[in-house]
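Give me structure tokens for this 190-residue protein.
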Amino acid sequence: MKILEIILIAVGLSMDAFAVSITIGITVKKAGIKEMLIPGIYFGFFQALMPLIGYFAGTRFAYRIQHLDHWVAFVLLGFIGGKMIKDSFSKDEKRREEFSFGFTTMLLMAIATSIDALAVGVTFAFFAINIFIAITIIGLTTFFISSAGVKIGNVFGTRFNFKAELIGGIFLILLGIKILIEHLLKDAAV
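Here you go.
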């Protein structure tokens, strides 16, 4: 898997966190450095941690299903992308008075927005990939995108919320299709 593909995965995965960050930005009175960094740190850390957990879980059974790896990647990325697209059409537009940056709130949101990354980590186990480079790219991408999302939400409001998650879902589905087609063409050539 190439660096560009990892970056596209990172961008796709960060869209849930981006959408939540925009919502956070909408609910804070002023999106200063602190308000931008807190979601970025939480979301970036968990988006990096989950693929690592998924990768090590996936390596334990990857050899048993290696001949199906491209189908697993296709199904997982398609499912995650489809879920993100579906969720983009069913967001609650309700605006809260002021967002709380409490530990429990941030932890729950970080876990909720990074569950999809766990499945992506499992797919990484099927490819020749340096997992530490991948999770660094994913974590940093999510950090920067989430931090920016708070500011964007604060400035522009909810109009980008729908588009961010929709685009992220489309990225993941297209990547799954690309992986499937590459492997099917490679298998056909053999």
